[in-house]
Amino acid sequence: MNFVPDTLKPPRRTTLHEELTQRLRDLIIHGDLQPGMKVPERDLCEAYDVSRTPLREALKVLASEGLVVLEPNRGARVSRITQEDLDELFPVMGALEALAGELACQNITPAELEEIQGHHAAMLDRYRAGDLAGYYAANQKIHEGILSAACNPTLTAHYRALSARVQRARYVANTTPDRWAQAVDEHERIITHLSARDGAKLAATLRQHLENKLRAVSQSLASQADAAGTRP
């Protein structure tokens, strides 16, 4: 009997289910499917040329991530973003990011550091160009790079289970010029501490970065509620 260790097997290709789940996740994160909106299953099946079965399996995954709510015999609805949800979510993500920073400073390789620095340079280019979508894409690669460099699969699993909800909150919020500049300054310090492999300072900066993001998202949600006349 031939035995091939898992480490020598070809990497698993993305399945239809995984690809469909990511596409739906992106639609929600980027706001194409708005909070409270009923998920248009028939339209999505036609758009992606899939049957209801893989679509509903994908929706189950997104429900486990808190992005949709499954309604018995009524399909799925995009979950709403509430202040209570943010107050619960962001401190946990801040703790996970802080731990990732500490571990990354211990384990990061020169090649990984160089790659993250490259994403940071690309992020700055997008900031100067006023390209918010491009900025977010490069920004996310930085955080993913730090997470990868931490070399802790358990941490990675918990982080990714929550990260989509944080990303969605970021897209829903209105990014002011002042907050954008503040975030860029925070990222400059993140790269400085990571390059110096100063885990304590990096952890503190990452935690503060999430706290400031929570404050900005909360202010944006309050403003939207005031405009809609729905704030208590």
UniProtKB/TrEMBL annotation:
MF term (GO), any: DNA binding
Species the sequence originates in: Paracoccus salipaludis
UniProt keyword terms in alphabetical order: DNA-binding, Transcription, Transcription regulation
The protein, known as: GntR family transcriptional regulator
The UniProt record lists the keyword Metal-binding: no
InterPro entries, sorted: GntR_C, TF_FadR/GntR_C, Tscrpt_reg_HTH_GntR, WH-like_DNA-bd_sf, WH_DNA-bd_sf
Domain of life: Bacteria
Domain HTH gntR-type, residue spans: 14-81
